Amino acid sequence: MEIGSEFWDVPSQEGDRKFLLSGRTALEYILRDILSGHKVESALLPSYCCHTMIEPFLRHEIPVRFYDVHFDREIGLCAKLPMARQNEIFYYMTYFGFSQMSGMDLSEIRASYEIIIEDQTHSWLIDRTQSMADYSYTSYRKWAGFYGIAEAKKKAGCFISLENQSHYEYNSMRKNAMLLKKQYIDEKADTKQEFLRIFHEAEELLESDYVGYTPNVDSVVQLINVDFNLIKEKRRKNATVLLNGLKEIPGLTPIYGNLSDVDTPLFFPVLVERDRDDVRRYLIEQQVYCPVHWPLSEYHEGISEIGKQIYHQELSLVCDQRYGEDDMERVVKLIAAYFNERT
Fold first, then answer.
1. Residue at 163 is within a domain
2. Phi, psi dihedrals of residue 141, rounded to the nearest 5°
């Protein structure tokens, strides 16, 4: 055999991977790939999830049932799994960039299900061992200022073909809205209502038209250039400030009581014992904008009462790389003042 001169192949990882527009786009594509070679009679999803994780299954007429995910003061966030059914997909995730999750015996799950999908969106920057899932996907948009990009992975074999079709309208809207927000933040420009409108319209567009799209070149370049170490360092520091400052406030409970060495928080989630929405309104009045994960929707039909509880109490405190420890101290002081005034 001849030795030397030009290369003729490129070693690659086992399996296959594709970049798509959004997490929902990636999940729908994964389901199409599964259905091309497997009989699927149902899917078992966590009760704690966004409607965008449920809708692709229903789009493909796959009946969905839920396993309970709830918070226990002694254990933390935990799952309770029912018996597996024949030809059922198992879907799982960990939450908010924290690795702690009780009630998930992955070796037992692997033995019970032929097909497992892991949603790695929240756990993107967790230092992990190799996933045991057959398929996984990650949406990157919530971690930084990406216009729209997600990644789907197949552990063995190749995906079905995917047409290179960019969603130009959606990407253009996201990019425009982000530029307007940058002007608002950096230059105090009067663009807030405009960028909020465009962000909202972009999400409505994605809600109705998300299937089969790939990211544009700008989004791929953003992902290539992202500073992973900065994101990890800032988020871990910010979450530590929130954890230390909030763990003793009556009426409010951090879902995670510690930050392990492998965790990188997406948000710092807390449970508000009474009137979560009033706390959220109070923070908005102080120009602190915190989302909730997630609103209950028509897609959540069948979730048990214990599974619904976290939806009514959870508040996601922002701890991302745009902010520093002083900002987190401000959030702690605001929340402490809110609860002190009401005790």
1. no
2. -65, -35
| CA atoms of 161 and 18, how far apart (whole Å) | 10
The CATH number of the domain where 54 resides is what? 3.40.640.10
Looking at residue 331, its amino acid is: V
47 within 8 A of 69, measured Cβ to Cβ: yes
Residues in the chain: 343
Tell whether the model's pLDDT for residue 251 goes beyond 90.
Answer: yes
Give residue-wise pLDDT tens across range 290-310: 999 999 999 999 999 999 999
**Out of 39-43, 248-252, 315-319, which region has the weakest mean confidence (pLDDT)?**
248-252
CB of 60 within 8 A of CB of 32? yes
d(CA 252, CA 28): 37
Indicate whether 188 belongs to any domain.
yes
Query: One-letter amino acid identity for 266?
Result: L
pTM of the predicted structure, to 2 decimals: 0.95
For residue 68, give its domain range. 16-154
| Amino acid letter for position 301 | E
Residue 10 pLDDT class (50, 70, 90 cuts): low
Using the 8-state DSSP alphabet, how is residue 293 labeled?
S
The number of distinct structural domains making up the chain is 3
Domain CATH for 320: 3.90.1150.10
What does each C-alpha distance from 84 to 27, 35, 46, 108 come to in angstroms? 21, 19, 13, 11
CA separation (Å) from 135 to 53, 105, 116, 237? 14, 18, 6, 32
Q: How far, in Å, are 85, 167, 198, 201, 304 from residue 173 at the CA level?
A: 43, 10, 6, 8, 38
DSSP annotation string for 264-289: --S-EEEEESS-HHHHHHHHHHTT--
How many CA within 13 A on the CB side of residue 56?
25
Residues 88 and 174 in one domain: no
**Amino acid at residue number 37:** G
pLDDT score recorded for residue 11: 67
Same domain, 93 and 122: yes
Q: At what angle do helices 325-341 and 228-246 cross, to 10 degrees?
A: 30
